[in-house]
Design goal:
Blueprint: H1 4-56, H2 63-66, E1 79-84, H3 94-108, E2 115-119, H4 121-129, E3 134-138, H5 147-162, E4 168-176, E5 182-190, H6 200-203, H7 223-301
Length: 302
């Protein structure tokens, strides 16, 4: 059994760790509230933008003539995946869940050599460690990113798709459900196709009818000019919303992880304190027995 000094040292170190985890919990809670507010406020706009995109995708005639982002490739050979993770750890299973989801998707779709565009160091480090193809990496985004921070990612994806380097582009991120629940999601970004969106939280804001009926739109000044501006901007909006959802999920997972760490530290302190009292009581009892034995020995000798 450890000595009293060792147990006291352990109690002190655990108390110091609990103070750190408590501070990290408060910081994560503050960031989570701001990230959650921004993600929730932009959901209706992003969902309606996606609804417009899917309606455009079912236009009669040759959609490729309307815009290349609406065209489906005859053969899918190369795909790109925008993998959104955190730059740091200490967020529970947040990073491992989305990485596992992405890896499973790559295996199931038989695209293990997909080009990965990583947003966050954790996803980049994992994919490089397992020798996956990382085409580009982005890290150190602000806690509350703006559309300007997302613009380079969008430009890279659009250029790759329009040039034919990628036949499909997917988004891999974590949907924010609530503080305790986050849902790893992989959904198609390009080309734009009609159908139900894979995101559970975004689907709540979409029309229940969906783009089942083909409605012919009238474009002014003309389709090329309008769609050249509209489609890239709406595509950027989908990436931006995914980053906001991922950031809210990350801070929520980190807050919960730090709260659990603080609670575990308190339980460990209680256990160590109980052990300390037992060892101390045993030492006192041993000393009293030694004193009593010495007194009895002296009495017999006299």
């Amino acid at each position: 059994m450890a000595s009293i000094r060792e147990i006291k040292r352990r109690i002190k170190s655990v108390k110091n760790i609990s103070q750190v985890t408590r501070a990290m919990q408060m910081v994560a809670a503050s960031r989570m509230r701001r990230a959650q507010e921004r993600a929730l406020s932009s959901r209706p706009y992003a969902a309606k933008a996606w609804e417009i995109l899917t309606h455009l995708a079912v236009q009669t005639g040759n959609t490729e003539q309307l815009h290349p982002l609406l065209s489906n490739r005859a053969e899918i050979r190369n795909i790109a995946i925008i993998l959104i993770t955190a730059d740091k750890g200490l967020a529970g299973a947040y990073n491992s869940n989305i990485i596992r989801k992405t890896s499973q998707f790559m295996r199931d779709s038989d695209h293990t050599e997909a080009g990965l565009i990583t947003v966050g160091r954790k996803g980049r480090d994992f994919m490089i460690r397992f020798q996956r193809k990382v085409a580009a990496e982005f890290a150190d985004l602000p806690p509350l990113p703006s559309s300007l921070d997302i613009a380079p990612i969008t430009r890279l994806v659009l250029d790759g798709f329009l040039s034919g380097e990628y036949d499909e582009v997917y988004l891999a991120y974590t949907d924010f459900i609530n503080t305790l629940v986050q849902d790893p999601t992989v959904r198609l970004l390009l080309p734009i196709r009609p159908g139900d969106i894979e995101s559970k939280v975004m689907s709540e804001y979409l029309s229940s009818e969906g783009p089942t009926k083909t409605v012919e739109y009238l474009y002014e000044p003309n389709p090329a000019v309008l769609l050249d501006t509209l489609l890239p901007r709406f595509t950027e909006l989908q990436i931006y919303q995914a980053v906001l959802e991922a950031r809210a999920s990350e801070e929520s997972a980190r807050m919960v992880a730090m709260r659990n760490a603080t609670d575990n530290a308190k339980e460990l302190i209680d256990d160590l304190t109980l052990t300390y009292n037992k060892v101390r009581q045993g030492a006192i009892t041993k000393e009293m027995l030694d004193i009593a034995g010495g007194a009895e020995a002296l009495a017999k000798a006299s």
